[in-house]
Amino acid sequence: MINFRMLKLSDPWLWSAAGGLVLVGLFAIFSCTYSMQIKLGGDALLYVKRQLSSILIGGVGLAIFTYLDYQHLKRAAPYFYGIMIFMLAVVLFGGISSQGAQRWFQFGPFSFQPSELSKIFLVISLALFLSKRVKLKGLWDPIFLLAMVGAPFLLIFKQPDLGTALVFFFILLGMLTSAWSSPKLLILLVTPLLSILFRPVIYLWVAYLLVLVLVLFLSRASLWDWILVLGVNIAVGVAVPFIWGMLKAYQQKRILAFLNPGLDPYGAGYHSLQSKIAIGSGGLFGKGFLHGTQTQLQFIPEQYSDFIFSVIGEEFGFIGSAAVVALLLIIVWRAFTIAVEAADLFGYMLASGVAVMASFHVIANIGMTLGLLPVVGIPLPFVSFGGTALLMNMISLGILQSVCMRRQKLIF
């Protein structure tokens, strides 16, 4: 039986911020699609109607996970993980292909992207694992944890969808940091990333390895730590050329275009350059709703999804963009606050995982539209067009509210 009195214990900041972002998203989606639909002789409100349908479906998921006691997710976590692996495996063989990627299931006029929903399934699974093993002991716990994240990571990377695969890695990194369960494992995850960044300049990489040696010496690390840390970093550095060869041609071009946008201004660097032009031309107050040049003339392909922030920047200016960023930061802030105030460790890990996931989405999406990060297919939470992504965000919001409402006993 649903107890509506519990809503009094929910977080009003989360409701307001999420509602505001969904509303802004509807206006931005309409702005960047209506002229395109008119030219094609279609329904000018087609994308808005689809997003509204997604909001209704997401609302059902939000209601279910809000009123469901998050403790029940402990029993459901193994099933969620199994469903995640099954969906990601099946989509590689039975999914539909679009633009060189096989990421979706098609059900009539609707499409479904398993990798989006898999993010919250992974958060739930990791929350259960880390709440039972606060301190990872022995060798098998870290190996099991890495395999647990590595399996869906590789399946998504195979689609290929490097952006979503990176979300999985940073969810693991963030939740490990929140739990502070294994500093050594954190070091083993972070230092190879630095090796990948420094490896293209061989002298810089060698200098980095020397710094690692100095840190290990000063920290009086054991012989096993020396072998493990240096071994992993050297192995990753040697493997960088092979990792580069595993990337698709368009992924390589995106990375090169990020390092030098002028290298291919009409190809891989086109999205980033046009997005920066759109945001920069918006100025302080923007060009006005439906008056953005880059937006209305469709200079940025599919800007209603990954590049929705460029629409906001051009038509609503710095003021509008800052307001959207503020709403996103409120969600991240409240998520971390709910985590700290959670009644138990499982609730803490759940809320922390959602907070980390939302933070990475915000940084990656806005960073790529500003040209500060490579272009990856990561939507802006609650704003970008996309049914599965919105459903995932709604479920995440419901989980946060469930943890929030059960911080204390309900008093009648």
Describe the structure.
This protein is mainly alpha-helical. It has one domain (about 5-405). The protein is about 70% helix and about 5% strand. The chain is built from 15 helices and 3 strands. It has helices at about 10-40, 45-65, 70-95, 115-130, 140-155, 160-180, 185-200, 200-220, 225-245, 250-260, 270-280, 295, 310-340, 345-370, 385-405, and strands at about 95-100, 100-105, 110. A 3-stranded antiparallel sheet has the order 1-2-3, covered by helices on one side. Helix 6 (about 160-180) crosses helix 14. The protein is globular and about 70 Å long. The chain starts with 11 loop residues before the first helix and ends in a 7-residue tail after the last helix. The mean pLDDT is about 85.
